[in-house]
Amino acid sequence: MKKLVTLLVAFALASCSTEKSMEQRIAEVDQIFTEYEGDMPGAAVMVIENGEVIMQKGYGMAHFDSNASVTSKSNFRLASVTKQFTAMSILQLVEKGQLTLDTTLTDIWADFPEYGGKITIESLLNHTSGIQDYEGMVPDDLDRQVKDADVLDYMMNVDTTYFEVGEKHQYSNTAYAILTQIIEKITGQPFRDYLKENIFDPAGMENTLAFENGINEVPHRAFGYTVEESGIVETDQSKWSAVLGDGGIYSSLEDFYKWDQILYTDNLLGQDLMDQSFTNHTTNDGAPMDYGYGWRLETYKDMEVNYHTGSSIGFRNIYYRIPSKNFSVLIFRNRDAGGEFSSLEYAHNVVDIFLSQ
């Protein structure tokens, strides 16, 4: 018996010794973001578990001209992480009975081209509408930034789609720009104001906003950059950066924590539509698309994940959420390094550090 007890104690001590301390885990995260430290465009990283922030850290520079370092207050352009807020706004109107998921574009605008009679709110939300991309329609000599209203105008002047509604899942920035115009038509208020009154203020996100140059200002703004062989170049805005619905919201770690937490409640949206947001919808042939309403979906190491990446000139972001573990990772980078899904690898690495022994 004494020998057995000794073996059990030894096993317990060995088990304890293999578990990483929080300091070790944070040091491992630091290694991932080494190239973002110092006088380089930076990154903001937060890890949330069971409602608590267990890691929060800024690396590198938010803005070189003002010598501002990245902090938990730095506001990054979310790019396509914005889409979950646009989707939430639409679903709130559905819940209030002002829209349905089957409402079509010709229901909203009687003068919309005939093809809009088949495009529904739902098909816009889950990228199965087949609506054409607006980016290629922007004139080369346009001397201002494109707005969401411009995108609607472009769609009013075409008469075809890429494919029949529901035939396939094809990611569409156009769809989410059109959704903002639906919100404005139904509510009679600018999209930026709808977001503030119905999402940001109720969630306590005091420094989050849909940025419109000349109308509002981004506090603690992180600017986007490109690292080239010749040096660091500010690449903060493009011709498409002013379109709000597909990518125009700015937020910080501190504010996004509040968004993460309110998603566990029904304070913004009832459970039925919330669940539909995180449901893996299918195309007409029954094939899953790994997308809900404004959310990408995946299974990682047997864990169901809701997430979205955001990639635009000067920025690469990800919000990675594992509800079953009450665990989330936020990574905002103000450097256009890597493709759309380069942030996914960063998120996986951070998850591995914190959810493994």
What does this structure look like?
The strands form 4 sheets. Strands 2-1-13-12-11-10 form a 6-stranded antiparallel sheet, sandwiched between helices. A 3-stranded antiparallel sheet has the order 5-9-6. It contains 11 helices and 13 strands. The chain has one domain: 3-Layer(aba) Sandwich (Beta-lactamase). The protein is α+β, with helices and mostly antiparallel strands and 357 residues long. The protein is 33% helix and 18% strand. Helix 3 runs parallel beside helix 7, helix 3 packs across helix 8 and helix 6 crosses helix 7.
Summarize the structure.
With 357 residues, the chain is α+β, with helices and mostly antiparallel strands.
Let me know the CATH homologous superfamily: DD-peptidase/beta-lactamase superfamily
Largest sheet: 6 strands, antiparallel
CATH architecture name? 3-Layer(aba) Sandwich
Rough shape? globular
Describe the SSE topology.
Layout: H1 2-18, H2 22-32, E1 43-49, E2 52-59, E3 61-63, E4 68-69, E5 76-77, H3 83-95, H4 105-108, H5 121-125, H6 148-156, H7 173-187, H8 191-203, E6 209-210, E7 225-228, E8 231-234, E9 249-251, H9 253-262, H10 271-277, E10 296-300, E11 303-312, E12 315-322, E13 327-333, H11 342-354
Antiparallel strand pairs: 1-2, 1-13, 3-4, 5-9, 6-9, 7-8, 10-11, 11-12, 12-13
